[in-house]
Every structure is written in C-alpha cells, then in structure tokens.
C-alpha cells in the first residue's frame, strides 16, 4: 500500500500476520489531518479484509504517537464548515469498525486526537516515554473524537476531569495505574512487545478472536444483564466452529492446535 502520510508493512511470525501502520508526518508530530485519517481508514479496511492478517498495530514515532488533530487545518473552520463536513466523525470512526483487534503502540506524545485515536484501539501498549493528554481546552475547544466519553470509561471521572479541564499530561506509569494502557515497556522494547502481543493473537483461531473483541466491546454499550446474555449466545455459537473442536482436541492430546479459522 502506498500512502503519503502512513507507512505500512506486514510482519509477524504467527500463522496470521500483523498489519503494521506507522503514522508518518514527523515534522508535525503526526498531527492528524483529513488526508492522514482518510489513508488510515483505507489501510485499516484493507487489513481487515485480508484473510492472512489476524491483527493490526498502529504506531507513531519515538517522539509522538500523534500530537492531536491538525490545528492548522482547524484554525479557520466555522461552525457551518464543521457541521456540514461532519468534522470530526467523518473519517475518524473507521478504527471502530475494524473487526480484527487493533493495538496502539504508543511512544512520546498521544495528545488530543492522538490520545483519542489510541483509545479507539482495542489495547494500548505504551513505551515508558509515552505521555497522554486531552489539552484541547487550551485551544478554546474540547475533545471532539470521543475523549470526554472514552477517557472516563477508561480511567474514571476524577482523572478524566483532571486531564480534560486542566490539560495536564499523564505519563506512562500513571496511565498504566489508571487503567488506560495495558502494558508499559522500555521505549526500545515497544515495537517488539507490540509484535509479540500481535503474534499471540495471530496464533489463535480468528472466529474466537472476533467474537471475543465483540463481546468485550459490548460491555461498554449495554447493561450487564444484556452483555452477559450476549456473551452467552456468542460463547455457544463458537461450539459450531471447527476451531473449537481443534482447540479442545489439541489440548486433550497435548499438542499445539492448528486453527483453520472456521
Ligand atoms: N497540529 C498541527 N501541528 C502540530 C501539532 C498539531 N496538533 N502539534 C505539533 N505540531 C507541530 C508544531 O506546530 C511544530 O511545527 P513547526 O516546526 O512547523 O513549528 C512541530 O509540530 C513540532 O512541535 P513543537 O515545536 O511544538 O514541539 P515541542 O516538542 O516543543 O512540543 C507538543 C510538543 C507539547 C506536543 C506541542 O507541539 C503541542 O502542544 N502540540 C499541540 C497539542 C494539542 O493541542 N493537541 C490537541 C489538538 S486539538 C484535537 O486534537 C481535537 C480533537 O479532539 C480531535
């Protein structure tokens, strides 16, 4: 895939490979403009449709995952521009419609839309250099890509209010304590750690992976009793897959399963 603001590469050692996407606007600290978000949506759709891919990783540079939506591109917008152009949802929701797991591998700044993009992913692996924040208030605006909604769900109201109202940044250790990130690793281990997580996912049966992601996400969208009901139905449905027979037979015979993703 050939993009102006992204680098893409397929890597990994598991049966299902990993689709890597590196945000690549280094001079603007990977500020997220329309062109980049269009390309990101396109790359995600390509990987999601590729049967050889089990997982996607989105990463940035050592200095910045992404320093937010592109301020230059926003500065002169009017309300009518924003409303009629459906700013910022138009090309930002692509991440949420990916069915395969998406890992954010974050080093350096993940601010504003950068933090929101990371939170749209299924899990965040952070370098010890990562810094998370929603500093939009300093620009006279508020987070516009889910920050006021996903941050409190991830870290609770107290820290979310703190970050959104004061524009304070959270370092990686605090983000891990608060539950925003899954793991923190030394910066030079970040990409290897993300690949290992992606390989672990890529070694599983894809139907169960897709169902597991759907069920965990359901926890955010429904009351507990509905979520538990949904999980039970999805759990039962996996007994209709060949992978379930293979996984349990492999366990019984003390061998590695060979999943066929059906
Ligand atoms: N948009 C456009 N350009 C940006 C940018 C952004 N969000 N963040 C950084 N840049 C550019 C800078 O303008 C600068 O460009 P020039 O060299 O051409 O001047 C370059 O990236 C390097 O930035 P700095 O010189 O500022 O680097 P620094 O190390 O001194 O500071 C920083 C780093 C603290 C991240 C600082 O750049 C910063 O505060 N950036 C803005 C962060 C921000 O406010 N993000 C929220 C954006 S609004 C949003 O995201 C809305 C939403 O909810 C979707």
UniProtKB/TrEMBL annotation:
The keyword Lyase belongs to this UniProt entry's keyword annotation: yes
Enzyme Commission number: 4.2.1.17
Molecular function in Gene Ontology: 3-hydroxyacyl-CoA dehydratase activity
CDD domains: crotonase-like
Classification via PANTHER family: ENOYL-COA HYDRATASE, MITOCHONDRIAL, ENOYL-COA HYDRATASE-RELATED
Summary of the function given for this chain in its UniProt record: Could possibly oxidize fatty acids using specific components.
Protein name from the UniProt record: enoyl-CoA hydratase
Organism name: Methylibium petroleiphilum (strain ATCC BAA-1232 / LMG 22953 / PM1)
């Amino acid at each position: 895939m050939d993009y102006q603001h992204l680098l893409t590469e397929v890597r990994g050692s598991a049966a299902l490979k990993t689709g890597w996407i590196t945000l690549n606007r280094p001079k603007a600290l990977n500020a997220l403009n329309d062109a980049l978000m269009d390309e990101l949506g396109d790359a995600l759709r390509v990987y999601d449709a590729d049967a050889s891919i089990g997982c996607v990783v989105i990463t940035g540079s050592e200095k910045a995952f992404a320093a937010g939506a592109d301020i230059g591109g926003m500065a002169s917008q009017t309300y009518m521009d924003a409303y009629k152009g459906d700013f910022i949802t138009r090309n930002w929701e692509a991440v949420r419609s990916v069915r395969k797991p998406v890992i954010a591998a974050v080093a350096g700044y993940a601010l504003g839309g950068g933090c929101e993009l990371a939170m749209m992913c299924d899990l965040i692996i952070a370098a010890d250099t990562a810094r998370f924040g929603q500093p939009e208030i300093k620009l006279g605006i508020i987070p516009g890509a889910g920050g006021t909604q996903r941050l409190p769900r991830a870290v609770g109201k107290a820290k979310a209010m703190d970050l959104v109202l004061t524009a304070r940044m959270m370092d990686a250790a605090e983000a891990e304590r608060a539950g925003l990130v899954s793991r923190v690793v030394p910066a030079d281990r970040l990409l290897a750690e993300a690949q290992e997580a992606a390989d672990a996912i890529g070694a599983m049966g894809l139907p169960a992976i897709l169902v597991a992601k759907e069920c965990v996400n359901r926890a955010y969208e429904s009351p507990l009793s509905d979520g538990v009901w949904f999980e039970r139905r999805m759990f039962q449905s996996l007994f209709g897959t060949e992978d379930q027979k293979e996984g349990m037979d492999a366990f019984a015979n003390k061998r590695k399963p060979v999943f066929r993703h059906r």
